[in-house]
Amino acid sequence: MSVGFDGPLYADVPGDIAVSFEFFPPKSPAMETTLWESFETLTPLQPRFVSVTYGAGGTTRERTHATVAKIASESAVPAAAHLTCVDASRDEIDEIARGYWEAGVRHIVALRGDPPGGQKCFEARPDGYANAAELVAGLKRVADFEISVGAYPEVHPEAASLEADLEALRAKLGAGASRAITQFFFEPETFLRFRDRAAAAGIDAEIVPGILPVSNFGSLMRMAGPCGTAVPDWMARLFDGLDGKPAARQLVAATVAAELCRRLYGEGVRHFHFYTLNRAELSYAICHLLGVRAA
């Protein structure tokens, strides 16, 4: 379904969308305060779920568990814990999953994970899960988790081809995942082309666009490279000169991300997953423009 944009871009958008938010576990008391303030700000938007990331090699294992368990026990918002294959045995990962289930967590974001520091490519441990599809299948053996997995509109940097990348996604969904959440991207056509290619390959599961509001352009460029995400030249020009003007930068960032979401909405997208970087303001503003209001 395609919707025209003859009138004001955000006029009377009905708010008929689902949203979800990603956080990372805090490293300090100050960061913990920021995280929970952001969570409290976004909770009234009734997110479908919130997820908490898992550091490379399990480096945030305890903090991730504590954060997700607190959300699960102290709020009505469904909590999802990220879990990866990196630097852990199958038995260790299964034990972590059982701990989540016992803590009331019913949703896992299952990812292969980035190679540990110093490694260019992921190498599975002999006693570990070899890839995300194996991880999904293993988690399903532990308990009947709801599982989300990753997808890459611009092709995973380590994939041999577009076709191989789509086959990897098909395998993850076939192993028991419910949906895929994409890596961030910055032009609507990137997601729409990927969605069409997935459908042509017989993938009919929900594919949710991952949206990254740009709070710092330099940090964005450092994040985008390893992910294989293209940053359009026009974005560099938009953010040029705003390093010392945080309020103006926030306005520009919200405008860019909201327009991306609005154009995807016009093509039938009804669930957006926001990478918040533990800051609520940008995601809240974008949701407001899309018609999502606090309950």
**Average pLDDT for all residues:** 92
CATH class: Alpha Beta
The succession of helices and strands, N to C, reads EHEHEHEHEHEHEEHHHEH
Radius of gyration from the CA trace? 19 Å
Give the topology, please.
Blueprint: E1 18-23, H1 29-42, E2 49-52, H2 61-74, E3 79-84, H3 90-102, E4 107-111, H4 132-142, E5 146-151, H5 162-174, E6 179-182, H6 188-200, E7 206-208, E8 210-211, H7 217-227, H8 233-239, H9 246-265, E9 271-275, H10 281-289
Structure overview:
By secondary structure, the chain is α/β, with parallel strands linked by helices. The chain has one domain (18-289): Alpha-Beta Barrel (TIM Barrel). 42% of the residues lie in helices and 14% in strands. The protein is built from ten helices and nine strands. It has helices at 29-42, 61-74, 90-102, 132-142, 162-174, 188-200, 217-227, 233-239, 246-265, 281-289, and strands at 18-23, 49-52, 79-84, 107-111, 146-151, 179-182, 206-208, 210-211, 271-275. Helix 3 packs across helix 4 (132-142). It is globular, with a radius of gyration of 19 Å.
Which terms summarize this structure?
nine-stranded parallel β-sheet, single chain, 295 residues, TIM Barrel, alpha/beta, globular
Short summary of the structure?
The chain is α/β, with parallel strands linked by helices and 295 residues long. The protein is built from ten helices and nine strands.
